[in-house]
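Q: Got a minute? One more chain.
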Amino acid sequence: MSRRPLVLICVPLICLALSPLFGIGLAIRSVLHTQPSWLPQMQVLQPLHTLASVGCILTGICALFVLTSDTLGARGAVFVRRTVSMLLVLFLPLAAGSILMGAGSGKEYLTWAPVLTPILILVFLVLGASFVVNIDAFTRLSPEGTWLIGVGLVCIPLGLIEASSYLLPAVAFDRELSFEWHGLDIVFAGWNALLYGFGILIAGGKGKPLRAPWLFILAAFGFASTFGHHHYFSPQPQVIKIIAVIASMLAALSFVKHMRAAVRFNATASSNGPVTPFLRAAELWTLVAFASGILLAIPQINLVLHGTTAIVAHTMGAMIGVNIMLVLGGLTFYLRESIDEACARRLKRYVTWIHIALVLIWLDLATAGTIKGLLRFEHSYASYHLQVTRAMYPLLILGPVLAVPLLLMCWEIFRIAIVEPSRANQAGQVDN
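A: Always. Here it is, folded:
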């Protein structure tokens, strides 16, 4: 690689380093009865934590796209790298500033001021245009991966536009929830498609032939119809809820498919490559995300757990265990020439550490959510809140336990990409 996109490599690492720090602050605010005066309020910490997490995934996708384009010798790669870097460096500080100034959206996931969303949309329009221009090069690398990347580049800007449609006066409150969550689901589906597409590329495979038409139709139905399971109890049309249940239950077919793929991957993957631990973690947490998502889409279970930390457990498992592992695995793949055996062992150790900590946090959040969900029907908030809080005490320890390997991972990749090459260049200049 002639020139690494250093800004695009650094931005997702910075976001990932900040996310667990904000998360620890959230844990302290949620658990301790005596609130530290130096710690920002929940209405600031929560959207900043979400911004950092979502920012890591979206900027990581941008980095992987540019790194792949450079590898392919794509036309216009330099323009794309510079434009996307400039837009992201503009967007993220403004988004964080809007939250700190109390001008955030107050919405889930897209927590920044809505006026900034067009910048993010423009980023993915630039990537999409570059993809169209260079689609032949992507297709030669992997037809299946190309389809997934293309679908993701279409879905993310469309989802961002739809999720922002609540700003239109014609969108009433009941329809606002439907528009918001359908848009968010399209964004999630988009970044999942993109990351799985890049996952195929970094796994070194061409992917599978195109699916049978009925499988494509089934996937498209689930792709566009599951959004209703996020808010069964809002005043959306009943038919949307029924369709959402059917689409969510059909996801069990994908769960079986992914389970078989995970078994095959673990049986055939090499244990020596630095990327393999990331891919194995993503495969495992994909199964967890599918299983928990299917369960949470069952109306009777959703009634109990909706609005509790059990939903947070599902989200954390998907975002950290799948999305962020694929981002980090992709960065590691493109930096693999600079990774020696000692570094590869450290990366594998950090992935294991993250995996264990995430399992414990997932179980703790699911337990606390179940306690709240079961007790809130027959007890007052004051009577069950203490029990829920006690169930979350382990987060005060587990939060730092997860944060440490994430920070070490960020430093390791930063060192590989920037620190060591900089030292080598300085040494070369001294020798000359």
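A: The first helix runs from residue 6 to 31.
Q: Perfect, thanks.
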